[in-house]
Amino acid sequence: MTDLTSPIAGISKPKAGRRDIGIKGRYAAERRFRAYGIAALSFGIIFLMMLLWSVFSKGYTAFQQTMITIPVEFSQQVIDPQNERTTNPQKLMTANYPIVARNALAKVLGADVNDRVAARSVGQMLSDGVRAQLRDMVVANPALIGTTQTVSLLASGDIDSAFKGQIDLKVSQENRKVNDQQVKWMNQMAEAGTLGKHFNGGIFVNGASSRPEAAGVGVALIGSFYMMLIVLALALPIGVAASIYLEEFAPKNKFTDLIEVNINNLAAVPSIVYGLLGLAVFVNFMGLPRSASMVGGFVLTLMTLPTIIIATRAALKAVPPSIRAAALGLGASKMQTIFHHVLPLAMPGILTGTIIGLAHALGETAPLLLIGMVAFVANYPTTPLDPSTALPVQIYMWANEAERAFVERTSGAIIILLLFLILMNVGAILLRRRFERRW
Amino acid sequence: MNMMSESAVEKALDQKMSEVSYKMIGKDVSVYYGEKRALFDVNLNVRENTVTALIGPSGCGKSTFLRTLNRMNDTIENCRVTGKITLDTDDIYDKQIDVVELRARVGMVFQKPNPFPKSIYENVSYGPRIHGLAKNKADMDQIVEASLQRAGLWTEVKDRLHEGGTGLSGGQQQRLCIARAVAVSPEVILMDEPCSALDPIATAKVEELIHELRANYTIVIVTHSMQQAARVSQRTAMFHLGNLVEENDTDKMFTNPDDQRTQDYIMGRFG
Questions:
Q1: Same domain, yes or no: A180 and A248
Q2: Does the beta carbon of A336 lie under 8 angstroms from any beta carbon of chain B?
Q3: Helix or strand holding residue B235 (H, E)
Q4: Rounded to two decimals, what is the model's pTM?
């Protein structure tokens, strides 16, 4: 008798019905999950792109500034009609420089300065900043009086906006900031090459100004720089010392558990609460000055500490116990073990945590508003006790301004802030690479 | 080392052993981890210039006992040691004894090679440096060279002393750890399964090294391998469930043990 179902001897025959172990369902679940992931990722990328596009498309023009380059006659008749500058040093400081600039521009445009309407239109094309610009030139070199120099003058914010195409010229001239005559002059000078866009270095160095063309983030940069220095100098050592104590030395009991829970909670406390604390403690109780970057630095230090402590403790925990055992086994004391071996190995994690904390602090606005750093500060602060502003606060203040030219400057300042954040994060990555060791 | 001198060393050591001198004496040693008791009144003496092997199934307390000898148990929370352990004449759990000083006298080599992520030179020089054993750079160079010589690693690494210690092979790393322990000139070296992460060739090298180190140091080694215990040790102690079952000459232990449990364990009937 032959067995027809198994023609070859020695090969087992398959069981009649295969078990259903849900293979299809498992793969389908995996495919679905991948799809969710990709969808979530695309969603995130789209919004990131929209954010960057919106900021950069609005903001890149802030780094260009319209300038009018014309020969300016430093006429003695306007600056110093009575020729009293040798006896009265105030004369050169208070002279009517805008008229000098207006007359120079009117001469180039062929406008009659005695026609009051035309003269006014010409004057409006120049920024009020020319007063300081020409004054500084003359005070530095009084010999300029009576000569004619070619000077690049700042165009007014409205002309700047119009030249960059940000003002709708189809609107009738009664309803816009620049009149038809000014637009005509502007185009005429642009063709002649006397009016053009130049790199706007002023946005990096100027202080606050109500005239957008002369406003910059200089004071805010210095304020933010001071605050970052203070945060780094205070939060890093305090945070690392606290973490080392909690992680390595503190007895494990209810009290230290309570501290740990509270540190984690503090990291989630809204930043405006820290601002109120700073106002109550540093300004009202300790009597430190308002608007000072030192107070801002203290407040941001308090805010950054939990972040640094959490990151440092995680980094200390991640150091393999075998390294500790090796050092202790050689007769190193606990202190030597920690400072010679554990801390260097935890360094990349600590630095990453610190820089993330700093970046967070750099972008913080709310607590600074409460301690009065939202102020109009035109002069550079020389010490951390002088009034200053901070980058994010400057952005906040510019966002509240009405002029068209402040819109691009708001975005421009955001770009500057983002650049600093990118720099800090790149620094974090580089430091991490530099300190990372394998074991 | 040729056969002649080796047998000479052996002879000298055996002579020394005949007049038994105990380096470390453990009396009624018990260890508790919180409520759990891990060692029950162990009485074990460690002879000078002898390799003592601690054997027994997993969780029998042999590593725990080893770690009481240089107070590495101090680092474990809730760990409590009772009884008395002396090194020469010093009670090592006495308040007067500094644990840092103790560990400089009783060194340790761990199960997994754990060199510091630093250069070979720094690995070896770290111990002498923190204990201030070298007066100057030349002194330190000499200590490093001597220690690496002793650990049989010198010829392999002398041209790359300033390269990372973690770049060595597993066996070399373990010999580096031994060199590191030797560098502080301890009196006793504790080894906690030093070969369990090594291949047979590296194991053979480390065992040979242990054999040579015996001339200058007292060695206590925990091992899971019966063959290793038989090869490297002169005395063997068998632990079971936290009790010391038997302690005897290694030869006797593996041929004619006094205790039935030792017999069973060595024959592979349990553990």
A1: no
A2: yes
A3: strand B235-240
A4: 0.81
